[in-house]
Write a structure and sequence with these properties.
alpha+beta; five-stranded antiparallel beta sheet; 14 helices; 14 strands
Length: 492
């Protein structure tokens, strides 16, 4: 019945005209995509897509370079906080405590908090999502703040777990929702389904409250529950290109190994210099400058296989362009091919790429990870007595105020960009605080370091750069100028 209604609608559309994209014309007759929701598609193919993406990252050079480029640009050496506490001394204490805690944040002990940010960026690119679980620690564990973060891969939350729970809650793709659609818990596997080295019970489920879990995801559709790999649009082309490269390499290898073929009209009388190897095949070693005497009737033929060298590189280039567009990464970052790049097109590609990166930093890294971790860390620090903040319960929102500073961008021509930025500051179009924040620095910290450097220079009698850059040094020079002039007049 439904199919007949659909066919009837298409016939009406063909008669009326309108959008060709919705008609069943000859060119679009076989173009009938699924109308299923993205959650249904992820449930059916998400696990296979993630497995293939991980395989490509492990075995394909382009995929490995793409993921490293993405993580390096998104996180770099870390997206760092700058507290908005007005009290300078109190702000400095909070920043020092945070810096000390970042070294202890990883529950596995492999990296610090900024390293966890980088791992999160990698995982979201590969699998479409990643999870972090807050792990409170005991006071006798010796941590500055008794809190750590445990990273959980997407495979630990089964896509196939869907059920109705007593009380009205429902589990969809491993996530438990209440009656009004709020996330209340996550049903994780206790062990990774693909890790055979873990002696734990396979399939055992543990329920973790949603308040203890950070679900990092970059959704693409409304109502999306689970993530999908960014490699999804490029997996087929990357895999087939990898096979094509391997086939071309093997063809070149075979052509190079079979250098000569000797034919003879008398197979019963082979050439004398041939020797048999361990497999019984007759071979002859070739040496530079070698002179070989052939028997009567024998002749030498060289191997001349067909060469596709003229079409190989253009085909590979166009394919990698499609892959780079699918992954959202510039071609040069994907292939490390800088021969086709110049200043103009490189800058244009970087500007577009960095707009995407900045949007991702704000909507995913800062909003989903950094803000949650900062709030939980500060609450734990106050409750554990690691830092004293007056009237914290009443002014919690004020104390949680924080600016997150991403890593600075390095430009193709840094001198021109620095001069343009200085002119913008002098014209009042930008503040120094904003300029420093865009470079990943805290203005208060930078100013304090500059003041300390200037004081140390005056104490030691040092002078670096132009004296006009420091008003205090300029004042000292102006005060000394009259004495020098008087000395010169006396000498004359």
């Amino acid at each position: 019945m439904l199919e007949s209604i659909t066919r009837w609608r298409r016939r009406i559309g063909a008669l009326v005209g309108g959008f060709e994209a919705g008609q069943a014309s000859r060119r679009l007759r076989h173009f009938q995509p699924s109308r299923a929701h993205l959650n249904t598609l992820i449930a059916a193919a998400g696990a296979d897509i993630t497995a293939r993406a991980r395989w490509l990252v492990r075995n394909n050079g382009y995929a490995a370079n793409a993921i490293e480029s993405w993580a390096g640009n998104v996180v770099g050496d870390g997206i760092k906080p700058s507290s908005l506490i007005a009290d300078a001394e109190l702000k400095a204490r909070v920043q020092r405590l945070w810096l000390d805690w970042t070294d202890d944040s990883d529950a596995e002990g492999f990296t610090d908090f900024y390293g966890q940010q980088r791992r999160a960026a990698r995982e979201v690119f590969i699998a479409g999502e990643v999870f972090f679980r807050f792990r409170p620690r005991r006071p006798d564990d010796g941590l500055m703040v008794p809190l750590q973060l445990q990273m959980i891969p997407s495979e630990m939350l089964p896509l196939s777990r869907n059920e109705q729970l007593p009380g009205g809650n429902v589990v969809r793709q491993g996530i438990e929702f209440d009656r009004i659609g709020r996330r209340v818990a996550y049903h994780f596997l206790r062990r990774h389904p693909g890790d055979v080295t873990d002696p734990g019970l396979a399939g055992e489920i543990v329920r973790v409250s949603a308040a203890e879990v950070i679900h990092v995801i970059d959704p693409v559709d409304a109502g999306q529950l689970r993530g999908i790999s960014r490699f999804a649009p490029g997996i087929v082309k990357l895999f087939l290109l990898d096979q094509y490269d391997d086939a071309e390499l093997d063809r070149k290898k075979v052509a190079a190994m079979h250098a000569l073929f000797i034919t003879t009209p008398a197979p019963a009388e082979p050439f004398d210099i041939a020797e048999s190897d361990e497999g019984g095949e007759r071979t002859m070693d070739l040496q530079p400058g070698q002179i070989v005497m052939l028997e009567p009737g024998e002749e030498v033929q060289t191997s001349a296989p067909a060469d596709v060298g003229q079409t190989y590189e253009p085909f590979q280039y166009r394919t990698l362009l499609q892959v780079s567009a699918a992954l959202g990464i510039p071609y040069a970052y994907l292939s490390n091919d800088m021969l086709k790049a110049n200043y103009s097109n490189s800058r244009l590609a970087l500007l577009e790429f960095r707009r995407r990166i900045e949007a991702y930093q704000h909507s995913v890294m800062v909003w989903q990870i950094c803000r949650r971790v900062w709030a939980r860390w500060l609450d734990t620090a106050v409750m554990a007595g690691a830092i004293a903040l007056p009237d914290y319960e009443q002014q919690r929102r004020v104390y949680l105020g924080c600016s997150w500073l991403p890593p600075k961008w390095d430009w193709v021509d840094p001198l021109k960009d620095a001069r343009a930025e200085i002119e913008q500051i002098e014209a009042g179009l930008k503040s120094r605080t904003q300029a420093l924040a865009e470079r990943g620095y805290d203005a208060d910290q930078v100013d304090a370091e500059i003041a300390a450097d200037r004081a140390r220079e005056r104490q030691l009698g040092l002078s670096f750069g132009s004296a006009s850059s420091d008003p205090r040094l300029l004042t000292d020079a102006q005060e000394a100028a009259p004495a020098d002039n008087q000395a010169n007049v006396a000498a004359d």
